[in-house]
Design brief:
heterodimer, A: mainly alpha, 69% helix, B: mainly alpha, 0% strand
């Protein structure tokens, strides 16, 4: 034979998994955002092991020590200490825990509420859709920050309350996106095939619809996690969120605000951390959207 | 058009009603309002007196319709903390917040639309990358922190602008930048996508083929169609800005409605909080209604949907 037939391997290469890996590793934003996000998650998980001090131990003799890059700073406290003499690096690492817990739990709660509403509205349409769309419209009319502040002001701030309040408020985008994604899936042939072959509605929703709206769901979940973290920081900053002495980045910025004139690093450090975390999560969400969109493949 | 308008108006009225119920109920989450209003006092007789005085001993439904009836007439009761009628305070503070909202919106549009257009004309050029970077940063920047950073640079390091107060236009510059930059990314992205879509459409090619100058095609044919969705977005964003004004006004001590709401929440001033939540929500309902009607007037396809 002059030319050999192509082997099975050469046709199957590269495998879908390899293709996905290639797309992921070529996407700079996704790699950068994912890297920073994973680094922050690891720091938060290992906080008790790597933090140089205890986040709650106060030391009046060591108040407001400058970070190491200032002239009077030292490596004993790389990021300095706050107004109560607590190690700032330690507070920062434990603060990542608070942000991530609130972000993840709130996004989970709002994700469950929003996805349920969106899929139901998109799948059943008609009157169900009308009722759910109205509920979404009502929710959108409420000013989120103001309502969250008012509720926390009335029932008091704690980690659990923050998660519940934010989770119960931020489901609107989940519902809107899941509704339109389900609308597109509903009329496809494989859903009709499942219906004529006698699948129950529950089974169709769980095994035919849900897996196919997973991509937009992941994108919205990342963006809403960032949204929840920002909202928590803003509420804590205004004094109606996580309460001291818990180390929340928003709270740290509020505490540092009194020293804004001479110790601006007190607000600079936690703010930069917050900015980096949100940026990383958003880049990740944008990256996932680029990669899962059919036109982003090639 | 009339049928669509009426249907949309009915929806807006229903949403407004639901929002009024929610703003009323919001403050009953605490359980007993009378105890909260009494503050430090633990005296039973005094708490009972407060309950009578505020009419909290009546059934909830009676209280709601009483509150709603008065609110419709513009009477939101007496502020517990500021000791003045809520109505006068709102009349006093709303113009400040509306001014801030308008200047921020103009700032966001002035930043978002040109950048979005330029980015769409030259995709993947340096200006596209600049626009993308600005929008990614703007979306990740916590407003309250950005406000403090601006204060550090523009008030403390270089004393150019006042850090707090409401007296002159200078007090509005930094709050406008903070709120406006926060809203700009969404407007920029929508303009860019809209522009890209329109520029690749047939009528643009026809316009170019028949010899119209590029500038005329761009501004007269393309931009006009591309900014239609931006109208709806701007209405929604304006509503979000009112909510965001709470954070920004508090930091810059700008005496608007948002700052007032924060003070009221901190001091258990329920009538004021209810009034502000209701006002902001109703304003959002009105804005989106106006935007929808405007869009339906522009685009007949929406009316029959």
């Amino acid at each position: 034979m002059a030319t050999a037939l192509p082997t099975a391997e050469s046709i199957l290469q590269p495998s879908p998994r390899r293709l996905l890996f290639g797309r992921v590793s070529r996407h700079v934003g996704l790699m950068l955002g994912g890297g920073v996000f994973i680094a922050i998650v690891v720091l938060a998980l290992l906080a008790p092991l790597i933090a140089p001090a205890d986040p709650y131990v106060q030391n009046v003799a060591k108040r407001l020590i400058s970070p190491v890059w200032e002239a009077d700073g030292s490596w004993a406290h790389p990021l300095g200490t706050d107004h109560l003499g607590r190690d700032y690096l330690t507070r920062l690492i434990y603060g990542a825990q608070v942000s991530l817990i609130i972000g993840a739990c709130a996004a989970l709660i709002s994700g469950i509420i929003g996805t349920t509403m969106g899929v139901l509205a998109g799948y059943f349409g008609g009157r169900v859709d009308m009722v759910i769309t109205t509920i979404i419209t009502i929710r959108l009319a409420l000013p989120v920050v103001l309502v969250a502040l008012a509720v926390v002001g009335v029932i008091g701030g704690s980690l659990q309350v923050m998660i519940a309040v934010i989770g119960l408020l931020l489901w609107d985008r989940f519902a809107v996106v899941m509704r339109s994604a389900t609308l597109q899936i509903r009329s496809l042939d494989y859903v009709a095939a499942a219906r004529v072959s006698g699948c129950s509605t529950l089974r169709i929703v769980l095994t035919e619809v849900l897996p196919n709206v997973l991509n937009p769901l992941i994108v919205v979940a990342t963006l809403e996690m960032a949204h929840a973290i920002l909202l928590e920081a803003a509420l804590s900053f205004l004094g109606l969120g996580v309460q001291p002495p818990l180390p929340s980045w928003g709270l740290m910025i509020a505490e540092g605000k009194n020293y804004i004139l001479f110790k601006s690093w007190l607000i600079g450090i936690p703010g930069a951390a917050l900015f980096a975390l949100i940026l990383a999560i958003n880049l990740m969400g944008d990256g996932v959207r680029d990669i899962t969109a059919p036109e982003g493949r090639g | 058009m009339v049928a669509f308008g009426l249907r949309r108006l009915g929806m807006a009225l229903f949403v407004a009603f639901a929002v009024s119920v929610i703003s009323f109920c919001l403050l009953y989450l605490s359980g007993d309002l009378a105890i909260a209003l009494a503050g430090e006092t633990q005296d039973y007789a005094q708490i009972e007196l407060i309950r009578k005085q505020y009419g909290l001993d009546r059934p909830l439904l009676v209280q709601y319709f009483d509150w709603l009836g008065k609110a419709l007439a513009g009477d939101f009761g007496q502020s517990v903390y500021f000791k003045t009628p809520v109505k006068t305070m709102l009349a006093d503070r709303l113009p400040v917040t509306m001014t801030l909202g308008l200047t921020s919106m103009l700032f966001a549009l002035a930043l978002g639309i040109p950048l979005g257009v330029l980015a769409a004309i030259r995709p993947n050029s340096w200006i596209d990358r600049l626009a993308l970077t600005l929008s990614v940063v703007g979306q990740a920047l916590p407003t309250f922190w950005f406000a403090l950073v601006l204060i550090v640079f523009l008030s403390l390091t270089f004393p150019l602008l006042p850090a707090s107060g409401t007296d002159s236009w200078e007090n509005f510059v930094m709050p406008t930048i903070v709120l406006g930059y926060n809203a700009a990314p969404a407007i920029m992205r929508l303009t860019r996508t809209g522009m890209l879509e329109v520029l690749s459409s047939d009528y643009i090619r026809t316009a170019r083929a028949k010899g119209l100058r590029a500038g005329k095609v761009l501004f007269k044919h393309a931009l006009r169609n591309a900014v239609i969705p931006v109208v709806s977005l701007a209405a929604v964003q304006f509503g979000f800005m009112l909510g965001g004004s709470v954070v920004v006004e508090t930091i810059f001590a700008l005496h608007g409605t948002g700052f007032m709401a924060w003070e009221a929440i901190k001091n258990n001033d329920f009538p004021t909080v209810q009034a502000v939540v209701l006002t902001f929500s109703l304003f959002y309902v009105l804005l989106t209604l106006a935007a929808d009607l405007f869009n339906a007037w522009l685009d007949p396809r929406i009316r029959i949907a």
